TrEMBL record:
InterPro entries xrefs: PaxB-like
Name under which the protein is recorded: Uncharacterized protein
Membrane topology listed for this record: Multi-pass membrane protein
Residue intervals passing through the bilayer: 29-50, 62-83, 95-113, 125-145, 151-173
Length: 192
């Protein structure tokens, strides 16, 4: 069995028990880490593309029903798991960069796509939702404890990101256009 000596020297390279059962070569950790980094870069690009199109079009998918409020859940995810799943400063910084991208997109969307009257209601809802989501994630972590909350982070991440793709697809079909999003957004969406 591989001893994964590299994983003992580089704290963020995690060897999961499921991985150990298959006895992969140590180079597997580089592939795993590279895929995680690539997903993070695509996540960042997704939000940058969304911000650019929202700024230019003065709308975003879901703007008519205040869809930006959903981002309070992903922002809570970024803050909560920055402290529960990370083991290095670099990982924490990455989570906070993603949080800042979520926050940046929310601010651009609020300023460009909403009137001042609806903006204040949405901001209030997002602040309340953020703290409620933090409490909910803590409750999930207590109900389903595991090493560094990896399993709850995985499943809650999927549950938070999956609807974004479906909303964009629905609105693309409904409006027959890409107003508020772009082809660049669609290129990175499957990886988001």
């Amino acid at each position: 069995m591989s001893e994964f000596q590299l994983a003992h020297r580089v704290p963020h390279l995690i060897v999961q028990p499921a991985d150990l059962k298959h006895n992969p070569p140590e180079s597997y950790l580089f592939v795993q880490d590279g895929l995680i980094i690539a997903c993070g870069v695509l996540y960042a690009l997704f939000y940058l593309f969304c911000m650019a199109r929202t700024y230019a079009d003065r709308t975003y998918p879901g703007a008519g029903f205040g869809g930006i409020q959903y981002l309070c859940l992903t922002m809570a995810y970024e803050v909560f798991y920055a402290f529960t799943t990370t083991s290095t400063l670099l990982e924490k910084v990455a989570f906070f960069i993603w949080f800042e991208l979520d926050l940046g997109f929310a601010l651009v969307a609020l300023r460009r796509a909403h009137t001042p009257a609806t903006r204040s209601v949405i901001q209030r809802n997002m602040i309340v939702g953020f703290f409620a989501a933090l409490i909910g994630l803590k409750a999930l972590a207590l109900a389903y404890p595991d090493d560094r909350e990896q399993i709850t982070a995985y499943w809650t991440g999927i549950l938070l990101q999956f609807p974004v793709g479906w909303v964009y697809l629905y609105l693309l079909c409904k409006h027959h256009g890409t107003q508020g999003h772009s082809l660049e957004t669609w290129y990175v969406m499957p990886f988001h």
